[in-house]
Amino acid sequence: MWETAKGRTLWNPFWKRLKASHAKVEAVAMDLSVAYRLAVTTHLPEAVIVFDWFHIVKLLNDKLTALRRDLYRNATDKEQRQVLKGIRWLIIKRSENLNDDRNESERLDEALSLNAPLALAYYLKEELEWVFQEHTKARARRFLENWIERARATGLS
User: Is 78 inside any structural domain?
Assistant: First the structure.
């Protein structure tokens, strides 16, 4: 967190005003910053922390990009290296946004068929959005717990 010369955070006035207002904060939406999580859990221990979707997808896309880069570096087959070289934007794009005029779906399918770990990671990323299709909180929780279990079981990190 941003600190002043005396070691106090620049957020101290905010936390003081919030406490004085007796606001009942139930949830706080934020990015994945450890500093923000620490501040919220310190000052609002009862509040539920909700990570915003944009940053979750960004994290998944960063993981996919790193995996693709590692696979490219370790590929010995020239064709596989060529296919992996030009697909970074395809694996981070949402599947419904792939451009048919540029044969992006076909290029992505080819790359995924050549590489099982990349395909597994890509489909997990795409599937995570299905959590929003669940109609109840309990079903969404079960879906998310199952998704996390399957993601961990892949051995991909």
Answer: yes
